[in-house]
Amino acid sequence: MIEIDGSYGEGGGQILRTAVAMTSYLGTSCRIKEIRRGRPKPGLRAQHLAGVQALAKICHAEVEGLQLGSQEVIFKPREVTGGKLHIDVGTAGAIGLILQTLMLPAIKAPSPLQLRITGGTDVSWAPTAGYLMKIAFPLLGRMGYQGKMVVNKRGYFPRGGGDVSAELKGTLLSPLKLLDRGGVLMIEGISHASEALRTRKVAERQREGAIKVLEKSPFPYEIEVEYGPTLSSESGIDLWALSENTILGSNALGARGKRAEEVGAEAASVLLKQIRSGAALDEWMGDQILPFLAAAGGESTVSVPRITEHLRTNLWVINHFLPLASRIREERDRAVIDITLSSA
């Protein structure tokens, strides 16, 4: 049984998600100890619990320690299956983090995994639904991954209530060599807000804030405005840069005391920073893609703006499951990661 120290590095829930995803994909067993030990509320929270419970269902796993606050989980998977599954994360638990838990194991499913997930589509410290749809799924598609999703209703903090449909299919992954970004063709985006904020033109003002930053760049842009019924009156904006070889993304969320124009400007400034690095992946995709590169085998090379603690921790977890030879080369404005699955 593989043992993982859940307090290693940044010590967050990503260690748990990556560990159970890898163990389900490979059909091994693992024990994750000291889960989120250094956090204000250590152990499993609702979104961690929902993700592991859902994964346990699709791979008929035997699980110990699966309750709120637990700091140790033993996960013993069996064969991964497809079919339909509804997952209720509860309140505004991040739907993006649930999908992170399931996306890699779904590769082994003999039939499509059809998901309906309710919770938070746009919440802090998690990939937004827009990021997954516009950046993560298309980039993984370059490796042969087959996944798609639709947002039926947005869910913001604190009440959630978002609704997403997703379909993940079994497939074979190919290694990825994505070093050069190529020229930026277009920046696109969606500025979204609760219907309750329409009279204050929050989504339009977020777009205006983004445009004031983007109009100083040489890139063409087009940002849509979207309103919809939500349980919490909040907002956000997703931006993505389509280039010759890849897609880079960024987002920002509304908050009390934060002007809508500031939200848009923040997302645009962050996206331009990713573009200026010259890297082929943004810094968030850098750690999210690692399990898929490892599972693909062979030799993969990607470039990222910087090496985050999330990336280093994810690589550390993956190395417990697969014999990887990895090299990180830090250049002036970006870093290059080489990953090879060794025969050891």
Describe the secondary structure blueprint for this structure.
Elements: E1 2-5, H1 13-26, E2 30-33, H2 46-58, E3 62-64, E4 73-76, E5 83-88, H3 95-103, E6 113-119, H4 129-141, E7 146-153, E8 162-169, E9 177-178, E10 184-194, H5 202-214, E11 221-228, E12 235-243, E13 247-253, H6 260-276, H7 283-288, H8 290-296, E14 299-304, H9 309-318, E15 324-330, E16 335-341
Parallel strand pairs: 1-2, 5-6, 9-14, 10-11
Antiparallel strand pairs: 2-4, 3-4, 6-8, 7-8, 10-12, 12-13, 14-16, 15-16
Walkthrough of the structure:
The chain is of the alpha/beta class. The protein folds into two domains: 2-178 and 281-341, UDP-n-acetylglucosamine1-carboxyvinyl-transferase, Chain (Alpha-beta prism), CATH 3.65.10.20; 184-276, RNA 3'-terminal phosphate cyclase, insert domain (Dihydrodipicolinate Reductase, domain 2). 30% of the residues lie in helices and 29% in strands. It contains nine helices and 16 strands. The protein has helices at residues 13-26, 46-58, 95-103, 129-141, 202-214, 260-276, 283-288, 290-296, 309-318; strands at 2-5, 30-33, 62-64, 73-76, 83-88, 113-119, 146-153, 162-169, 177-178, 184-194, 221-228, 235-243, 247-253, 299-304, 324-330, 335-341. A four-stranded mixed β-sheet has the order 1-2-4-3, covered by helices on one side. A four-stranded mixed β-sheet has the order 5-6-8-7, with helices on one face. Helix 3 (95-103) links the parallel strand 5 and strand 6 (113-119). Helix 1 (13-26) packs parallel to helix 3 (95-103) and helix 1 (13-26) runs parallel beside helix 9 (309-318). The longest helix has 17 residues, at 260-276. The radius of gyration is 19 Å and the shape is globular. The chain starts with a strand and ends with a strand. The model has no long low-confidence stretch (mean pLDDT 95).
